[in-house]
Amino acid sequence: MPEIVFINSFEVPVDRDEDFLLLWKEIDDYMRGKPGYRWRRLHRSIDPGSRLRYVNVAGWESAKHFDAAHDETFRKMQSQPGWAHFPAYPSLYTVVQEDGSATS
Amino acid sequence: MPEIVFINSFEVPVDRDEDFLLLWKEIDDYMRGKPGYRWRRLHRSIDPGSRLRYVNVAGWESAKHFDAAHDETFRKMQSQPGWAHFPAYPSLYTVVQEDGSATS
């Protein structure tokens, strides 16, 4: 079965990288231990003027696994006041066109 | 040298998929023939209510290759009036955190 891809784009002011990465790492560490988690790549824009300065792209076995991973502990992490500074655009995607390989 | 990743997120109304994909394919076909192009994955959200319904993630050898590919022909394609219906958030990124593999 083809995997499902979670993409979350973040608006992060240029002087807030450290705060953002601290919050992100907490959730990231937790999610990577969940059943169905496969891989993730966190991207940072090379242009400080970009609106979506961080984009996380993550592969999961299925939407069911992904949903199950977002439990009480996740919700506690995500409701921390610090996250209010970083508007986010999360969604689950399927790959509709693909060639080559994203492995580096 | 680590590759550079171009990510472009698009706002596409649910009833405009066909128009969007037609415009996108024209530019995609052109770019895939350019020096330094490596791979790309086009993602569509499984949630019709998502703001960023399409996200294209593409690997390039370098920012220099990427910039050179955006020539006169590209600009002509991109300036077509149809694109005005699809707000886009393009930027070049480096991978700051990575594990696993995005190959399916």
What does this structure look like?
Chain A is built from three helices and four strands; from the N terminus they run E-H-E-E-H-H-E. Chain A has 104 residues and is of the alpha+beta class. In chain A, strands 2-3-1-4 form a four-stranded antiparallel beta sheet. Chain A is globular and about 40 Å long. Chain A starts with a strand and ends in a 5-residue tail after the last strand. The relative contact order of chain A is 0.30. The mean pLDDT of chain A is 94. At the A-B interface, strand 1, strand 2, strand 3 and strand 4 of A face strand 1, strand 2, strand 3 and strand 4 of B. Strand 4 of chain A pairs antiparallel with strand 2 (37-45) of chain B.
What does the average pLDDT of chain A come to?
A: 94
What is the subunit arrangement here? homodimer
* Stretches with pLDDT under 50, minimum 5 residues of chain A: none
Order of helices and strands of chain A: EHEEHHE
Strand residues, percent of chain A: 25-35%
Q: What is the CA-atom radius of gyration of chain A, in angstroms? A: 14 Å
What is the terminal separation of chain A in angstroms?
A: 23 Å
Overall geometry of chain A: globular
Number of helices of chain A: 3
- Could you tell me which chain pair has the largest interface and how many residues each side has? A-B, 41 and 41 residues
Structural class based on helices, strands and sheet pairing of chain A: alpha+beta
Share of helix among residues of chain A? 25-40%
Strand segment count of chain A: 4
Largest sheet of chain A: 4 strands, antiparallel
Main β-sheet, spatial strand arrangement of chain A: 2-3-1-4
